[in-house]
Amino acid sequence: MSRPSFELVELVDAHCHLDSERLGVEVGAAVEAARARGVTDIVMAGVDPEGWAAQVDLARRFERVFPVFGIHPQLVPELDQRGLDSMLGDLERALGGALGMRPVALGETGFDRLTNTSRAAMALQEVAFRAQLRLAKRFDLPVVLHLLKSDEPALRVLREEGLPERGGVVHSFSGAKELALALVKLGLHVSFCGTLAFPQSRRLREAASVVPLERLLIETDSPDQAPPPFRGTPNRPEHLPLVVAALAEVRGLTLAETARVTSENAFRLFGLPESPGA
Asked: pTM of the full predicted structure?
């Protein structure tokens, strides 16, 4: 497969676990390779306090790499109420500047019902979800949502709690077009990753075809969900142009048009600073 590249267009990877040990290369090499492919900006993803600190370190080392702090729903089943309360306190302090850097969003938060263990912890996941939505409102941050096999409970909580003024994004969207439109109606963006390029992803392509252009984002979710022909290997931000190509095909746009609109959306949602010379 040819590897699309872009000139004079800033690509934004809207969701990337750049601090993961599973990238397969040193972080500096991953950032350099991404920039060689036109990926100028990388928005990271929060999981736990250790990860937030690692993100701050990376954001200080590399220009245009941005932190996101949150308590991942897959982590919640490992906690009890006391442990969750303690971690929410850590998050509140981090959002208030305890780590020396303000994140561009709060997340990942939401629901995960993939395993028996995670399903058994739905009540505590809901406590964590609601608390983080309220923190996002308090600190005027968009939210990054992880919603896996949890359409109805997620929509219920989002309708009851509402979103922060700056809205948010459902990352790595995997649902049907009806869910995508329901999320957009609530004020959310919808982000697509390498799974959009899978030949069997017809339902996902239908969803990508109906999301308003101004609500579309792209991501790698590195080191997971690598697009063809890299499926089964560590995903990295350098593969983002393949997601652009898949989305361009679905929407009937050029690569440059798709790159431009998704980057503009990311800059607006996350409040990213303009790059020098822009």
From this structure: 0.95
